[in-house]
Amino acid sequence: MTTPRPSTTLSADEARRIALRAQGLLGSPDRRAGVRGVLRHLGAVQLDTISVLARSHELVPYARLGAVGRRTVESAYWHPGGTAQPHAFEYWSHAACILPIEEWPHFAFRRRAYRDRPHWNHALPDGTYDQVIKQLRADGPLTATELGGAKKTSEWWDWSGTKVAVERALMYGEVVCVERRGWKRVYDLAERAIPPALLHDDLDDRECLRRLVRLAGEALGVGTRADIADYHRLRGDQVDAVLADSGLVPVTVEGWAKPAWADPAALETPPRGRHRTTLLSPFDSLIWERARTERIFGFSHRLEAYVPKPKRVHGYFAMPVLAGGRLVGRVDPAREGRTLVAKQVTLDGPKAVPAVARALLEAATWVDCTNVRVERVDAPDLREPLTRELARALD
User: Fold this and answer.
1) Which is more confident, 80 or 235?
2) Which of 61, 153, 193, 280 is geometrically suited to a Cys-Cys bond with 284, CB 3.0 to 4.6 A?
C-alpha cells in the first residue's frame, strides 16, 4: 500500500488529547444519549467474566458518564424482557463485545469467514445444530442451559453438543445473543431479533472492512495501522485494502515511529474541555492495545488476573487511574461488605494522590460503599497522604 504524504503534523500531546476526546474522556459527556450514546460513540464495548467492582461493560460507561445506575446500563444495552427489538448485539469484535445493532450488516465478512472455516476445536454432533435451531424457533429466546445444558462436565472447556451447536450458530449469524441473564448468553434467531432492515449479509467484504476501519479511526481519533487493525481485530492486509478510501486522513505524529491516520472531524477543532478523573477497566477501549497505551501515555499496562499470584506486580485486577488526561496510577480493588478495599495502589508521585483519592471515592459511592480502606501503597511514604486525603473527603 502506498501511503499519501501527510499534510498535518500533530504533537504527541495533541494526539493524546485527540485520543481522549475520541474515547469520550475529554469534554462534557453527552448525558442525554446516555449509555447507548457511549456504545455508539465507541463502536464496541468489551465483555469479560471478571467482576470486582462491577463487570467491565458496566465500568466503561461509568468511566465516561459517572455514577450511572447499573440497571440502567443493562437496560440500555439490551431490551427489557424481550418486549422490543434489541439496541445491541454481542459478537466477536476486539474480543467478545457488545456492538450497536446498526452495525450488524458490517460483520457479514466475519460471519462468512466462520462459515468457511475448515477446522474447529469442538466437534459438532450430528443433528444437534438443526435441533437447536428448531428449539429456538419454537421456544426462544433461550440460554444454553435451557436448550439442554452448556457443559458435559464441570470443566469450563468441556462444552455440551448443544453449547457447541448454538455457539456455532452464533458465529454463523443464524443465532444472536440478545442479552445476558445472570451472565449467561440468551440466544434467539437472527430472523426474529434483528430488525428486518438490517437483516442481510449482502455487503461485500470490502464494504464491511471500510466501515469498520472508519469506525475504528473515529473511536481512536488518531492511530497507526496496527492501532486501527486491533480495534476490531482485523488483519493488517484487510486494513491495507481499504485504508485509502476509508475517509481517514494520513497525519504525522511527533515521536511516533510509524505513520498514522486520523478522523478528519477530530482535526477540525482543538480538543478542549473537562478531563475525566476515574478508574478504568483493564478492558477499556482507551487502553486496549498495550503498545498504543505506552506510546500515548508512557504507561505500561498489563492485566495480571491470569498471572500466577506470586508473579503479579500490580495486582489481580489493577485498574489504571485517569486524571488530567494522564494515567497517574493503578488501584487493585476489592469489596468487603460496604468497604471498598484498595488492596494495592501505585502512584505516579505525590501529585497523583488527590486524583487517586477522588477516583476511589467516586467508585465507592457508585458501588454503594460507604468507606475506603487502603492496604498497600507501592511507595510507602505516599500511603499516609493518600489515607489522609480519603479521610478528609469522607468526614
Assistant:
1) 235
2) 280
Burial of 138 (0-12, 13-18, 19+ CB in 10 A): exposed
Going across the sheet that includes 184-189, the strands are 45-46, 96-100, 88-92, 175-181, 184-189, 142-143
C-alpha to C-alpha distance for 202 and 297, rounded to whole angstroms: 41
The packing angle between helices 161-172 and 128-139, to 10°, is: 80
- Nearest Cα residue to 301 out of 316, 309, 312, 289: 289
**DSSP conformation class of 346:** E
Cα–Cα dist 210/220, whole Å: 15
Q: What is the mean pLDDT of residues 122-132?
A: 91
DSSP state of 159: B
> With b meaning 16 or more CB within 10 Å and e meaning fewer, what string describes 72-111?
ebbbbbbbeeeeeebbbbbbbbbeebbbbbebbbbbbbbb
Quick one: pLDDT at residue 372?
A: 95
What is the mean pLDDT of the segment spanning 308-326?
94
Residue 271 corresponds to which cell in the numbers above?
Answer: 480538543
- Dump pLDDT digits (tens) for 202-261: 999 999 999 999 999 999 999 999 999 999 999 999 999 999 999 999 999 999 999 999
Question: Is 48 in contact with 283 (CB distance < 8 Å)?
Answer: yes
Distance of alpha carbon 98 from alpha carbon 76, whole angstroms: 11
Alpha carbon distance, N-terminus to C-terminus of the chain: 61
Residue 368 corresponds to which cell in the numbers above? 454503594
The answer to whether 103 and 91 are in contact (CB under 8 A) is no
Q: Measured between alpha carbons, how far is 221 from 242 in angstroms, rounded to an integer?
A: 18
> What CA–CA distance (Å, rounded) separates 61 from 75?
13
Give the pLDDT confidence of 158-173 residue by residue, as tens digits: 688 899 999 999 999 9
